[in-house]
## 1
Amino acid sequence: MPPVLSISRRTRRTPFTDRVSAAGVSGYTVYNRMLLPTVFRSVVEDYRHLKSAVQVWDVACERQVEVRGPQAAELVQMLTPRDLSGMQIGQCLYTPMVDETGGMLNDPVTVKLEEDRYWISIADSDLLLWVKALAIGYRMTVDVFEPDVSPLAIQGPRADDLAARVFGEAARSIRFFRYKRLEFDGTPFVVARSGYSKQGGFEIYVEDGRHGEPLWDALFSAGSDLDVRAGCPNLIERIEGGMLSYGNDMTQANTPHECGLGRFCDTRSAIGCVGRDALLRVAAEGPLRQIRHLEIDGDAVPPCTEPWVVRSEEGPVGQVTSAAWSPDFGTNVSIGMIDREAWVEGTRLEVATPAGPRGAVVREKPWL
Amino acid sequence: MPPVLSISRRTRRTPFTDRVSAAGVSGYTVYNRMLLPTVFRSVVEDYRHLKSAVQVWDVACERQVEVRGPQAAELVQMLTPRDLSGMQIGQCLYTPMVDETGGMLNDPVTVKLEEDRYWISIADSDLLLWVKALAIGYRMTVDVFEPDVSPLAIQGPRADDLAARVFGEAARSIRFFRYKRLEFDGTPFVVARSGYSKQGGFEIYVEDGRHGEPLWDALFSAGSDLDVRAGCPNLIERIEGGMLSYGNDMTQANTPHECGLGRFCDTRSAIGCVGRDALLRVAAEGPLRQIRHLEIDGDAVPPCTEPWVVRSEEGPVGQVTSAAWSPDFGTNVSIGMIDREAWVEGTRLEVATPAGPRGAVVREKPWL
């Protein structure tokens, strides 16, 4: 029997938890000290449905760090090597955030609400503490806090149809990594074209938890003929899509360049960024290891609950950190960090899985 | 069926996880993004055993923030309103840590290893990010990092006997909230008399995860006639003992005074402390609500997974955040935060539990 999750106030519920329970959630993880569903029917059944219909995801665990005030833009630029000087209201940008050594602290989406107001929609680390302490140490004129905002995602090939029925036809014209303020039941919501799948869709930033259940219910009644279901980020699909998971595929030990995120490091222009000097050095020398996608031979591998060592004939050359059997590609798909000498597309390596050593092939691109 | 916990690299394993699995763990929570066992046989069976024998607990999730360097003492004092100017090497002190408004960020034990070297043994928040960013903002000469240190607790009435068999008779003379460096297998470990139960015992700060399994195995073979078992912090016993849980009974919204921790706030002398000015104000005015213990009428209440509203005849006066049926006291024991007008010992109130409203009586002291 796999261990159950003991739920307490500390593993926070979301505005959607009662609906998620009623929809028959069967697995959870804890993400930003909050409940994040991982499985409803089965990971494979959820995967097929995500690729063919439309799902509503409780991703309230993507907590927001709100930064507002005269020095908000300056503080947000200190957090990331991505140059935000041209960022416009209405944009939401993927922004790797680093410490003073260039180590990844989080890989959030930053939403620009006003010239002096931002939401940082975080991955799994208490970035709030980092941002607050920098603001105090540098005596900046900003407010930094966690607002009552809970993202709800609509993902899948029918996402546009569902969003249009609830938020109006304007939803269809939202561009990738842009948002519009669209009304539901008389209240405007930030609706962004983004999300943690390759199937397309939206993330709705639900301000004020009391709107959570009415919005959830409206999506399900509007989408009954679209076969809308409760879903969640799907392990198989996100590996096929090469979507990295902070804490799984990368940690504070890794630079953005190691994570394949060098294109987001405008370190010459992003002059306020903490860690800029360290990243200038990294950019000049290039990373010594980098994220790669590995196709692992044989039948379905067991769950990857700790890094699996990857070897070449010369010895260890990296690790696999996420892996799953892909029904669509008929192979095990995986994400790992591979040393420079072995990271070329097509290199054959061996992965030490709990089911024994397995052959594997390096890919530069993911499957989707 | 209660949802299972989906385990990945992100919900980190500990050096003891394989042993914990082999011992038959049946429930987990995630604490500091790491696995923390919550149940082995059953919460009640674990409770009776904890009170009568001795248990070994994997509390590696109490991660350490190491602070070292010329300004280490200065930085650690910035984190807490407790006056650390007299703290000696060999002491480990309970140190509430607060933000600039006096809100609780964590309630760790701080261990003084050398004049310029500390471990902060944290509750459930990424205090590392707070401490690192303060050090950067104030340009302090310190190193701040998470070392490879995993606490293992020995708790229960036979803890002294077990510790003495593995670490020698010197273990018996360790005073409360002090530590000694004692050898196991040729390696010295920090062994402190502390732990998250009222049954007495030790926390061993296991440096270098490779020592984890040999130490675990030595404790189990030395203690077989003491009925040693794998255990974990026990919900019933910790509520009986009035031990607060950060994230459950208190959050960033609460001051130390609200948490009943005013005695640790030496705000007049702890002059480096961030949040000191706010806490001087709080100390002068007194808190408006405070932690109390409530005896809840009737049979066993369901698990407390979100705050339960507490009412007097005049309306809402607070909330209960931890609750369990106590076999030894024959009542429901609980911890909550109660407004000033209703917090006097003996006040009768009503608690909105998921099993319906229940009468309750306020206690100033816990049961153990």
## 2
Amino acid sequence: MRVLGVDPGLTRCGVGVVEGAAGRPLTMRGVGVVRTPADAELGSRLVAIEAGIEHWLDEHRPEVLAVERVFSQHNVRTVMGTAQASAVAMLCASRRGIPVALHTPSEVKAAVTGSGRADKAQVGAMVTRLLRLDAPPKPADAADALALAICHIWRAPAQNRLQQAQALHARKGRTA
Amino acid sequence: MRVLGVDPGLTRCGVGVVEGAAGRPLTMRGVGVVRTPADAELGSRLVAIEAGIEHWLDEHRPEVLAVERVFSQHNVRTVMGTAQASAVAMLCASRRGIPVALHTPSEVKAAVTGSGRADKAQVGAMVTRLLRLDAPPKPADAADALALAICHIWRAPAQNRLQQAQALHARKGRTA
């Protein structure tokens, strides 16, 4: 499974591509940051993010886009920009028929470090180890995007089983 | 000046086109709502909103898109969807080179009713009167979109003068 992780933001949108499967070694296929100037107009920043995400989708052809689930209670000052950047990323993927998966920050931290309350340094260290990199990816947004992709690869089997069970339950309910 | 007003939302995105100039009678060119099913996946809802906004841009060729400025402190439960829907609308306009203007809810209310704290019914009544309609546009999101467009038409001259004054001041600062 090849996953494009996106850590959304208007100023820095982290992107990272990881390939692998649960229980198998992971491989990093690419990592980077889509940046837009803080003094540009909001509309043109969104257009630049769209172009950046399109480029990563063209280049890496991921099967899934994993995005951070944004909560309105976190970081009230930046949350609007985060929601807007994530909307653009989800739009780009959905337009191509690529499924979008959302993971909360604590799910991501728990997946790669074992603790939902791990700090940025710990996440960066584990991403470096799991992907056998020479150094933690910089900036932190890029490392977070890789962590999101890893989280999705590891959680997807469990999520799929849950969805199948729910679908089965719904079918049973209808035929009962 | 022809303005497409957008009252952003995932479930109901109000859209309204108004033509006119400050101090001249206003004309409604169209009003409606882009709806997406609440049980659909977020990505496909954003794709549907994009298609809806594109349709309104194709149909009415507005010179400006006026969108409600979203605040994270208002309505915490729905604010994320509002931010995401508004991002898609701004993206669609900016991609075509159409300028995007943001107005706060209280600016819009003050523009059409004289009070920044007017309620929905008062806004609907004034929109009906200003556009010489037979009845208030339904749902309220559609009326709000028209109010946004009216607000922009009336505020734009003042905003332009302010921007020109700021630009002049900046130029003077550089040459001083």
